[in-house]
Amino acid sequence: MDTMISGDVVEKSNAVGEKTLRADYASLGEQLDRRGIAIDAILGKVEAFGVAIPSWGVGTGGTRFARFPGQGEPRDVFDKIEDCAVINQLTRATPTVSLHIPWDRADPVRLKQAAARFGLGFDAMNSNTFSDARDQKHSYKFGSLSHADAAVRRQAVEHNIECIEIGRTLGSKALTVWIGDGSNFPGQVNFARAFERYLDAMKDIYAALPGDWRLFSEHKMYEPAFYSTVVQDWGTNYLIAKELGEKAYCLVDLGHHAPNVNIEMIVSRLIQFGKLGGFHFNDSKYGDDDLDAGSIDPYRLFLVFNELVDAELSGAKDFHPAHMLDQSHNVTDPIESLMLSAVEVQRAYASALLVDRKALAGFQDENDALMATQTLKAAYRTDVEPILAMARLNGGGAINPVAAYRASFYRQKVAAERPASASGGGGIV
Ligand code: LRH
Ligand code: MN
Ligand code: MN
């Protein structure tokens, strides 16, 4: 299998930290042993855990107001795949890529080969009917799947069906639909009629879904529509999944909720009713900030994973959520941000695996709020870094991914081949 960074660079970087890591791992192992937890079992689960990289994340997305291109940004989807290969080589946590059409439109056979070269697969396909593609017949300015004009809806449905077709060749097994449809003024649209039209259009997309595929609908409270949004929250999202059928699930993008919303409880509800499809992980302070996962509120990320682990251990039905990142980078090297975000997601998972669930259930039954919450904190406070680093080392990755990446001078090397003026691809949404 090909790698973008020479194995020597990774080995040299690992030589610096391996001895300390083994000592730290042994010491954490003893500590966990005293708590009745086998460290190797946690390690095994972490090694098997993966989170997909969004193709649009490896370019410098910027913000709504400006984009300051970085050095050596990917020129096209093939460069994006190479950057994704770097992320997976060093973290061993990101075995798949999530593509966005039309941003990543290319010959699917070539795409598949390009990814296979690095042992990468494809996660959910993403359609785009929230902006107009060049040469498209009808504009999405006033909506897509919920548009008042049947011809626009048809065009949007066909685009989604084309995404499924591309994904079929790639070996993808899911389509994620996020629409920007909504309104900017009271009275602009009839809420019920718009939702009805959306549901009808989604039924057409659902009908084109292969038997082993899943359809994810992604809700978002507002933006680009600022007065009302057709798929605005998890309640509407649940109605959609329920209405469409058993292959339809809800996708939760952490940044798509109002500040202070209890996202972990939404996750629990969707799990309980068998409709949690997957995630777009990122972090935010104000809105859909698309900041690096775990950079603002790592405890919330842990609490989300606490629900996921609870479901995993209790064997919840229809529970196999897709894990994806969805971030935009403005001031950091996207590869570095995405590597650290993948590790943050893994960290939340590993920490949640340490929760003493028996003790927690006991405290809950006794209404011992203080001890119940301390049980979660005890897991959260445990530094699981040695487990994460050991998983990387065992998989041939880097103990310290950022250090190895910087030592490889990858960015400087690709900058020589990729002109600075090229678009980073991806949007600002
Ligand atoms: C919308 C969104 C959705 C898009 C992506 C680019 O805000 O989260 O997932 O596909 O951004
Ligand atoms: Mn998203
Ligand atoms: Mn978003």
Automatic annotation (TrEMBL):
Coiled-coil region(s): none
InterPro entries in the record: L-rhamnose_isomerase, L_rhamnose_iso, Xyl_isomerase-like_sf
Membrane-spanning residues: none
UniProt cross-references to Gene3D superfamilies, sorted A to Z: Divalent-metal-dependent TIM barrel enzymes
Gene Ontology MF terms in the entry: isomerase activity
Keyword Metal-binding: yes
Keywords, comma-separated and alphabetical: Isomerase, Manganese, Metal-binding
Protein name: L-rhamnose catabolism isomerase
Gene: rhaI
